[in-house]
Amino acid sequence: MITSTGPITVFDIDGTLCFDGRTIDARILSALDACERAGHHLVFASARPVRDLLPVLGGAFPGATLIGGNGSLVSVGGQVRTRSVFAAEDLAVLLGEVERFGAGYLADGPWDYAYTGPGDHPIIGRVQAHGLGRRVELAELPAVVKFLVVSASDLHGLAESCRALGLSVNHHEGEAIIDFAPGTTDKWEALASLGVDRYSAFGNDINDLALLGRAGHAVRVGAHPALDGVAHVTVAAEPEAVAAEILRLAAGTTAA
Fold it and tell me: Cys staple from 4: which of 11, 41, 115, 166, with CB 3.0 to 4.6 Å?
């Protein structure tokens, strides 16, 4: 549970705070620090597993709460906890479709991972850069909390087929990846499980829809059309604009 009595502000990472897949601009880090000093409890909620969130934050904000794997993992006080895993029957269905479409994937366990995609894909480069998890065979993972398809003979066909089978699918067409989560897990559900019902949120993509839709103050970074109906504010997807909006929140010029 999050026990903070101050305002809670939730930030997606990639495309919201991080624009190169590796780092957060110094202007945004400074604004986040100002937000924390103003009494906000910071929550970082990402499609990344917690393992891959930590290098991007670079040791900053050790008191923050982390939500990883689109809600399947949470870390409070540095303790990583698994919230949701793929049921054996769902994973079997997904793997059947993966084989049918000749797909390569990154499957995350609570800490380690399995990978079958192209060796030069940026995703695996980022995962391996910091050596925080071991690459193992899929069968060696104690559970699968996130499944990311990075290549396939027909990504759209795979996404639609898996939706029809009742799997939770986020197809990021601009990045040519498909993100599968266990069951109906999402960032908002994970936040609610931590006792949070009032918060502000920043996000940029379809997997932020539920999170932004229930926020008292919802900031869309960029122009994803799926967020048209939920964003209270839209800012450009560049560090100066994002930092300025965080600073406005820290100064109390917006309200959750």
Answer: 41
